[in-house]
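Continuing the batch. This is chain 6 of the set; chains 1 through 5 are on the previous pages. Same settings as before, nothing changed between runs. Recording input and output for traceability.
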Amino acid sequence: MVLSRQLPPTPVRESVGRLADDLRRVRVNTEAVETTAAEWADREFELPAWRAPVFPDERQPGVTPADVFDFMFVGNAINFAFREFETGRKFTAEYDGHEWRGAFGMWACLKRAHDTGIPITSEQFLADLSRDDFDDLFTPVDGTQLPLATERYEILTGLGERLVAAEGERFHDLFETESVALYDDGFGFVDELVERFPSFRDEWRVETTDDHMTVRFDKRGQLLAGMLFGRFGDGWFSIESPTSFSVFADYNLPNVLRSLGILEYDSALAEEVDAGRPLEPGSRPEVELRAATLLAADELAVQLSRSRDRPVTGPELDYALFQARDGVETEPHRCRTTAY
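Output for chain 6:
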């Protein structure tokens, strides 16, 4: 499959494009892409505004857009892996009398702390965070603990240490927040994010027929930008080229695209995924699943955009695919990774 040239080039698209002709375990069915585009031709695509109660609201007294930026920054630093790897049960937490599952359970814990005055975006608080205090922050309702807790704890304390080294800056102070370029020869928002905070890096080296290549996804970095764009995109955090976003390749999107017939796994990979056997992070099949997801989604976005007044962007298509996840009979692949 040839990467569409109708979308702006980015480091993610360029690296995924180099793998496109060397996919071995996953195939993109272009006929199924065309069929889905035709079936979704009249569909309205929505950019989520991320205004659920588990997020601070800058419209409320004492809350600024910068406060929301810092809150979303901290949350997306640990926005990965919310199912128990053995049982598939989702992490669940209570906030404001309601139970929130998966990623929203994590956001609920952060908002619960925020509401009680715990300075969860403070560099000193994060740098000094003890493991016991971390565990108290993320108390579940049913005993299903937050997976990869040690990795999350180390990421949060690492964020604090790096911000302390920045001598009093807050997270939002380190980035351009008006007319934002996602990628700009190393100086775009995501470029600088992964450079300043390595826990956001999401690139993997895989073997090829001739040598090796690095494939880059930037899932959590793009998601942070996508959430800020959804919340503020008509002003404070506008994106210069919204079609620079890819979808956010995770567990659910490959499974949804597979259910649509767009992704086809080879028999060995299908057996591994369906049996619930975890894929090794950065392994050839795991990287191919994510790369094929981006290739297929880009082509689907291009086809959906042809008859519209404006293009369908990665965050909009991601949201549509993500909403379809609960109607899929097969289980998502499993992988013990902090990338998604």
